[in-house]
Amino acid sequence: MAAIRTLKPNVTREQAILQFSSTGIPRLFRNVAYGRLRSVAELYIPFRLFQVQIMNRGKTEERLIALDAISGTLDPFQFDHVPTDSETVSIVSRNCPRAHLEDAFIGELLIAKLRRLLYSRGFFRMRDLQITATPLAQELHIPYWLGFRGSNGYARVAVIDAVRRRFEGAKMRRLVEAWLTSNY
Asked: What pTM value is reported for the model?
């Protein structure tokens, strides 16, 4: 196992357990429907950083955006600057799927996502739209917390983004389930 560079999480293990085990009616529903919380684990997803330049209507906009290097389907992360050493930590973990996609393909996916986003804000606002994505040298991992529930031989996983402090949806659950059941 090699050391990886990851953003510092904003959610500790104890906070993740509390978030997975929220109180009241939602907890009761989750426990009946999916079983009680059995285990919590950390996961680090590799993201590739890109310097993105968007030219539209004669104006140029620069952004720093990261997209996952496993499937390219997760929501992108946007940064104000390249994360510094004080904003990251170096760790060794086996809960880190390997990056499968090449930089050129991830860049194409990122450009397509941005194009859809810009067009959804107003097709007629676009004129001479050009988007370029230049990969940066660093690979950055994003920390997540996995909560495993189960009963009667069934298991279900829930995922919390440890940076944004929010539950992730079906795309992330499918990615985690695929990683757990394959030889990533």
From this structure: 0.85
